[in-house]
Specification:
single chain; about 400 residues; alpha/beta; Rossmann fold; six-stranded parallel sheet; globular
């Protein structure tokens, strides 16, 4: 078949871009002719047809206007020569083509599962955001009818399809994407005295703030460990500022509402934070693949604290390195991974619960051995052979749906 893979170009090459490269390779290996149709996602302000009387210009709600502008660009793509279109990030599932397979990880989240939380951040105009949310949902419902099948990245992602768009189960299947980085065939032995490691961008709602606070909760505990953060992001200065405040007042980690740590605007960080050499938290920023792998190898525990994560490949990577993982109960796809593999703990999204989880793993030999044993089974479960079969099934379901419609 002639297949177009449509993707907005955000000017970065992150985990999704690496996954998409592998998906394209699988399609080519299956004998399809594949063209990648990328279009600019970093759009300069312009009038758009989706604007409403209440949201009149980019300065009112830039995220809304950007989404409406991207939708215009997607709808203008000429893809008539292709038998199948594979859509990727929003709003590419709104493409004008009769036969679309959506590789789905999320809607535009601040207008869906994060809409209410986003409206609680200080700099957001709640009234305008509600209007923008209603308008985005109207736009989506107007055009998603071309999607014949949804290949969802996790049960968490599939639940959003059901919740917001009433997509029936028969039109949804799952893709269990393997890790995208090289992992050793025989990982090094578990490191009992290694640091707690978090591999994540510092962005909302990755919630690295919760783990920063947990690092200070662990100070002085016999099972306490330093916390090593791998990754940069737009909230890095804010997170470092939080570490500075907690270093000066560590009791703040236990007496504050946990949501207060991450439900704040990063704009509130107006001064350069002080770096304390004796802080339990170390911020390494962006590192090479080799340095990241070294962090996994040296870790005693890996923590992924994100809220309603789409999938959570970093947790899967940690399992492949045979390191015990801790995720939060509202972690979405991260919880899916832990429940499927049994290679981690699920705890409440609080600094104290994260610190207690680390202590349990380090002190409970039976629990730790069970987690490590289950991690050894993960490589045989998450394979590209399995992903290839799931992709083939989704294509077949898409083509059958088109035939039935005719």
């Amino acid at each position: 078949m002639r297949i177009a893979v449509v993707k907005p170009d955000w000017g970065v090459a992150g985990g999704f871009e690496r996954l998409l490269d592998r998906i394209v390779a699988l399609l080519v290996e299956a004998g399809h002719h594949v063209d990648e149709q990328a279009f600019p996602a970093l759009i300069t302000p312009r009038p758009v047809w989706g604007s409403s009387n209440a949201v009149r210009n980019w300065h009112d709600h830039g995220e809304f206007f950007r989404y409406a502008a991207l939708t215009e660009d997607v709808r203008r793509l000429d893809l008539g020569r292709y038998d199948l279109v594979v859509s990727t990030q929003p709003p590419t599932f709104l493409v004008d083509h009769p036969n679309v397979l959506a590789l789905f990880y999320h809607q535009a989240r601040i207008f869906y599962d994060l809409a209410e939380l986003y409206g609680r951040i200080d700099e957001v105009d709640v009234r305008l955001h509600r209007v923008a949310t209603d308008e985005v949902r109207r736009i989506d419902r107007t055009f998603i009818g071309s999607v014949r099948h949804w290949l969802s990245g996790s049960n968490e992602c599939a639940s959003r399809l059901r919740e917001y768009w009433d997509v029936p189960d028969a039109r949804i299947s799952l893709l269990h994407a393997p890790a995208l980085t090289e992992t050793p065939d025989i990982p090094p032995p578990w490191q009992p005295h290694g640091p707690v490691v978090c591999v994540s961008r510092h962005e909302w709602p990755k919630r690295t703030e919760l783990l920063v606070a947990a690092g200070h909760v662990m100070r002085g505990r016999p099972a306490g460990r330093p916390v090593e953060f791998i990754g940069a992001g737009g909230r890095l200065d804010f997170v470092r500022g939080l570490d500075d405040r907690l270093f000066r007042d560590p009791d703040l980690a236990t007496r504050s509402d946990p949501d207060a740590f991450w439900m704040q605007s990063a704009l509130q960080q107006t001064t350069k934070p002080t770096v304390h050499a004796t802080s339990p938290n170390r911020f390494r920023g962006n590192v090479s693949d080799g340095e990241r792998n070294r962090a996994y190898a040296e870790a005693s525990v890996v923590i992924a604290p994100a809220y309603r994560e789409d999938y959570g490949l970093t947790a899967l990577e940690a399992m492949l390195w045979q390191r015990p993982v801790i995720v939060c109960r509202d972690g979405g796809g991260l919880v899916d991974l832990v429940e499927e593999t049994g290679a981690g703990l699920v705890v409440e999204p609080t600094p104290v619960a994260l610190a207690d989880g680390v202590q349990r793993i380090l002190e409970d030999d039976d629990l730790r051995h069970a987690l490590l044993e289950r991690a050894r089974e993960v490589p045989a479960t998450f394979t590209w052979q399995r992903a290839r079969a799931e992709l083939d099934h989704a294509i077949e379901a898409t083509m059958q749906s088109l035939s039935s419609a005719r």
